[in-house]
Structures are given as C-alpha cells and as structure tokens.
Amino acid sequence: MMQVTAHLNNLRIAPRKVRLLADLVRGLSISEAVSALEFQRQRAARPLQKLILAAAADAEHNFKLKKDDLVIKQLLVNSAVTMKRYMPRAFGRAAMIRKRGSRVTVALMSKTGAKLEALPSLTSEQKTEHKKEEPGTAPSAAAVKKDTHSGIKPKSPRSLRSRLFSRKTG
Q1: pTM for the model
Q2: Could you tell me the end-to-end alpha-carbon distance of the chain, in angstroms, rounded to an integer?
C-alpha cells in the first residue's frame, strides 16, 4: 500500500484544539474531509484543510495517484514549541502564560491499493547515522549497563530518619 505524508510544523494553535478537528476527519476521503472542515468554526479548520489538500496534490503530482481514491489513514497532532510569556499579577509577582503550538502530520492512502515502485532505501552508512542517539534523549540500555560495571557504586537508599530530618541545604 502506498502512503503519502505531509507535515505542518509550528502551527500556533494548541494541540488540544487541533485534535478535536483531527478526530472529526480521520478515516474520511479527501472530498468528505475538505467539505467537513469547510463549515467548521474553529480556527484550526483552515490550516488542516490546506494540509490535507497539499498532501493530496503531492500524491497526485509526485506519485500519480488519483485524488478521488485517497483516504486519510493517519492524522497525528503533536505538541510543538511552547512560547512562554509573563503577565503581571498582584504584589509584584508574574504569572507564566504558555502559548502552545502544534505539529500536524497527515498520511494519505489509496483506497484501491495502488502500488508504486519502492522508494530508495537507506544505505548502511545512512542507517548507522540514523541510529545515532540525538542529544537530550535517554541513553540506550546497553550504555546504561556499561555504566553500572564501570566501578562507580550506585547511591545507597537513604533511611527514613535521614529523609525526614535532613537539612534543606544539604
């Protein structure tokens, strides 16, 4: 089965609000989804509609699929960068306001099950590069296992008495 994906990054609408519309159109054909989003009052309807139409145009142009045969197989809404702003409050304090963003991914699939030539696969060099850990991710289980045998003793669990009566500075 052929699957065509399109992405919308950094949509400045909260993911919770976008998911309401994503649940509405998931599994529908392209024409049904576009017409359903046409009459929605939510602000996220227009960007979602444009994304679906862009994915359909991509499938039609690049993969020679018919627009009428396409169905929304997957519609993922994840959180993007959250902008933090501050609002003055009483007694000289400041309250944080989180302006959330969304990252939307749509995957279209052909109803008729049209198969195309396989996309070029990754070379072994690209696979090893792809498997490298990104900064900020948790280390793999093998790396953690190596660290336990490096001679560093893990911290012993603290007793209840030391936890209850410990100083805040220590």
Answers
A1: 0.65
A2: 60
Query: Taking residues 18-43, what's their average pLDDT?
Result: 96
Domains contained in the chain, CATH given: 3-110 (3.90.470.10)
CA dist., res. 170 & res. 168, Å (int) = 6
pLDDT band for position 83 (cuts 50, 70, 90): very high
> What angle do helix axes 15-25 and 30-38 make, rounded to 10 degrees?
130
Amino acid at 64: K
What residues contact residue 115 under an 8 Å CB cut-off, 6+ apart? Answer: 1, 2
Distance CA 48, CA 68 (A): 18
Distances (CA, A) of 144 to 12, 81, 138: 38, 29, 10
